[in-house]
Each structure stands twice: as C-alpha cells, then as structure tokens.
Amino acid sequence: MKYEDPIYGEVEFTELEKKIIENPGMQRLKKVHQNGADFLVKPEMDTSRFEHSLGVAILCKKFGADEDEVIAALVHDISHTAFSHLADQVFERRDQTYHEDHHERFVKDFGLDTLVQEHGYDPDYIFDEDNFGILERDRPDICADRLDYTLRDLFKAGLINKETVDRVLKGLTIEDGLIVAKNESTASEVMDLFFTLNKEVFFDKESEGVKMLMKDILSRGLEEGVISEEDLFKTDQEVMDKLGEHRELRQKIQGIKNGVTVEENGGEGLKVTRKHRIVDPKIHGTGNRLTEIEPEAEKRFEEFKSEVPKEASYVVQVD
Length: 319
What we know:
Layout: E1 2-5, E2 9-12, H1 15-21, H2 24-28, H3 49-62, H4 67-75, H5 86-90, H6 103-109, H7 112-118, H8 123-126, H9 144-156, H10 162-170, E3 172-175, E4 178-181, H11 184-202, H12 205-223, H13 236-243, H14 247-258, E5 260-264, E6 270-273, H15 290-293, H16 295-307, E7 311-318
Antiparallel strand pairs: 1-2, 3-4, 5-7, 6-7
Helix pairs in contact: 3-4, 3-9, 9-11, 11-16, 12-14
C-alpha cells in the first residue's frame, strides 16, 4: 500500500499495516482533529489524528524500526476523543492521558488484537508503546510522536517548509534505540522548533481562547445530558451535531465559527495554565544533551519561560 504524506512524501506500508490502516477504528481518526477546536477558526490547522498517526509510523520506518513498532505507532492514538486533548481539560487531566485509559478497549473492540495475533505478534507487547523507544520517549528526548507533531503543526501553520523538514530529518539518527541529533546544529534547530511550536501554535492566544470556549461547551453538554462521555469517542462532527440539538450550545458553536476576538487580560476571564516543555536532544557519540554542551541552549529555555508565563487570562468574544 502506497501513501502520500503531506510532508514526508510517498511511503509504502506492508499488507498487515494496510489492514490496520483500513480498520474502522483507525478510519474514525480521519474526522478527529489533532489541534482541538483550532480548525473552527483556523482552516489551515486541519491535521487529523489519522494523518498524525501515519506520520509517526512513517518516521518509525525512516529510522529503521521493525514492523511491530510501526504497528504500535499506527495505533498509538486510536482511542483519542473528539477534539483530541480537549477531553483532558474537560475531565481535568493535566497529564493529558485520558485517551490512554481507553486504548486497550479500542484495540479489542476493533479486533486489532486478534489481527496482529493472527500475524504472529503478541498483542500485549505490541500495543504497549513503552516497549518502543523510537515511537515514544519522555521529554526532553526526541521521539517519532513528538517529532511528527512538531514538524507537522509548524508546517500546517506556515512556519516551516518541506526543506526544513528534510534538513531536520537528515540531521537525526538512531543511537542505542533513541533518536539523537548527528550534531549540535541539528539539536539546536530541533530545540528552537519546539519552542516555536509552543509559542506560536500551542500558546497562540486565539487557539487557547477557542479551546477554552469549546471546553466549556463540551462540559455543559455533558452536565446537561446533551452528550454522554461515550459520545466523545465519536468524531468531531458527530459531537457537534449532538450539541447542536441544544439551542444555546448550537449558537455558541456557530459564534465560534463566525470568528472570535481574544484579548489577554490580567484579571478576570478564561484562565489558561500552560506547561513549559522542552526538547533537549542527545548528540550522537557524546552521551550528552545539547544543554550540557552548549550553555546558550539553557539560556534560550529560560528566555522562553520568561516570554510565555505559566498562566494567562483571556477575554474572548464571538461574532
């Protein structure tokens, strides 16, 4: 099976990988947006969890992962809810792992455990991403998941081009099962790209404001029984359709679509709590991270923290 990725180009998947991609559980992800409610006001931010999942699998292939890790990459987000991480905010899950609680259920409900078992794989092993170091690592390491959403979101936002994507990928390699930078230059670029992602995409005031509005709409829909918790495991549009049965919630969603104005306010308003996250790649052949070799890198992280306070308050108006 050949697939054309928007930023990585053409890739070929095996027959088993093809079966997984075509599974209804995976196909649902085509209609689940990666960046929460951003798409309602930023049409360019249209990445789906499906596109991201295939992108992570492609990176695993590029870095020489075996088929079992590629399959784990394909399925790693299968249980994501509608509007992705907005469910974590609705249920106050600061660890952003709400969807992971349902991963095993999705794998079984869609028969993926049986499918991989028929091809000689142990489902318990293959669907535990902790077994695969290219796919997933804790920060500040690079991993395929973190690398894909960084490059893909920045590309969709118009902040980098394909040449940047190609250059970054050529500057990375595998050492002891971990994605590392070949040199300080690539490590520095990856760190700066992650800072840019946080400042310009994740912490963009319009994006944060829209997410807070949609979070409140989802919370109210749940409280009033307009939607159920299980409805969140449908698609974005299906959830909005159900919310639309409630006149006031329908009007609120339409207001977001018509446009929002977001102004930062130091007092009352929609409050946002941010995570100060960093990618600090290890450099091949040194055993050290960038900040251990380049003191300026640590300073850049301190500058980032000073530029982006951990808390913000917004006044959000809809048209």
